[in-house]
Design goal:
The chain starts with about 20 loop residues before the first helix and ends in a 27-residue tail after the last helix. The protein is an alpha+beta fold and about 350 residues long. The protein folds into two domains: about 220 residues; about 90 residues, no CATH class. It contains eleven helices and six strands. Strands 1, 2, 3, 4, 5 and 6 form a six-stranded antiparallel beta sheet that branches.
Length: about 350
């Protein structure tokens, strides 16, 4: 119970940031908060700044996505481990994996938020691009070597950092969360940056719109969901999570949920109280067996403040750990704890 209302906590979720349109926005919002805390914590010094590094590889329509994204992750891990980014004055970083699809097949690439101690050196991207290309070849082969030629602007000049096709450096703007793939609205609004290229959520939308299970968009979505399984969307450098105030479990400890001796005691302002706790298996059984289960259990939880838990017991679903203060046979049970399964 919280604020006089019944709430359900501790439910199992898939937590997929890649394939679940329900869980993904929640994870995006949570991780976006972490990154914002990191940026705020880093920018307390006047000389500090943040930049965005984009790393790409050559790819073709015949390339296997799972193999490519694993090779890219290994190449980045090798690059970060050997201190290549020190030439830029980088102290912390957050690496994000993004995947798009286009005429040349699947295109996995990295966006990296870099926390720098000062202005990066001019023409610094030459050594970075060469180091990245070397590690891509080592992990994926010569065919995937990215182009290290310098990118020219509309005036035919390179940017101040000498960005290449393999590695591009830009100052972070208001859209840095979108570049990291953490914009909550990206599921419904983000589109590929180039015509003919599609984000994975665009592919999912097109797959959902068709009724043909053999439609190419359905096949692409199924293939992506299998190939991306197990991939990490974000990785953090050592010390970055601590600077952002994120604990080792990537989150904030759950609130102190208590079960008083008398469950009919009125709730204090802001108090959250456990009324009933179920195992994951019993919760799934109830969802299948009892119509409107969530509505029924939350209604019974509200009544527990006046009936001592009779309505909850009447549902007929075994409790994981009965609460102290529930009348009849549960009066001497130990305090309950949240079901974290």
């Amino acid at each position: 119970m919280q604020g006089g209302k019944a709430v359900v906590v501790g439910c199992e979720t898939c937590n997929s940031v890649w394939s679940c349109p329900i869980c993904a926005p929640q994870k995006y919002a949570e991780r976006a908060t972490w990154v914002q805390c990191l940026v705020r914590g880093w920018m307390t010094e006047q000389t500090h700044q943040t930049v965005m590094l984009t790393l790409t590889v050559k790819h073709a329509a015949c390339d296997d996505l799972r193999w490519m994204r694993k090779g890219i992750a290994d190449a980045w891990r090798d690059m970060a481990r050997h201190g290549v980014l020190k030439v830029l004055g980088c102290e912390h970083h957050v690496r994000s994996l993004e995947v798009t699809w286009g005429p040349n097949g699947w295109h996995p690439h990295l966006h990296v938020l870099l926390c720098l101690t000062g202005e990066p050196p001019h023409d610094a991207m030459g050594p970075i691009a060469e180091a990245w290309a070397e590690r891509v070849v080592r992990n994926l082969g010569e065919r995937h070597r990215p182009l290290t030629e310098v990118v020219l602007n509309d005036q035919g000049r390179p940017d101040m950092y000498g960005s290449t096709r393999a590695a591009k450096l830009t100052h972070t703007g208001a859209d840095y969360l979108a570049k990291l793939g953490l914009e909550v609205t990206s599921i419904v609004r983000k589109a590929g940056r180039v015509d003919g290229h599609f984000t994975t959520w665009e592919i999912a939308q097109k797959a959902a719109e068709t009724k043909d299970s053999n439609d190419p968009w359905v096949k692409r979505w199924q293939y992506f969901s299998m190939a991306i399984m197990g991939a990490k969307q974000l990785t953090w450098s050592k010390g970055a999570r601590k600077l952002a105030g994120v604990n080792d479990d990537f989150g904030i400890a759950p609130p102190d949920l208590t079960c008083p001796k008398d469950p009919t005691t009125p709730l204090a302002d802001g108090e959250r109280r456990i009324v009933a706790s179920y195992t994951a298996s019993e919760w799934r059984k109830a969802l299948r067996r009892i119509p409107g289960w969530v509505c029924a259990v939350t209604t019974a939880a509200v009544l527990a403040l006046s009936d001592g838990g009779s309505a909850i017991r009447a549902l007929g679903v075994p409790l994981a750990t009965p609460c102290v203060g529930l009348r009849s046979e549960q009066a001497r049970a130990p305090p309950c704890t949240p079901d974290t399964s």
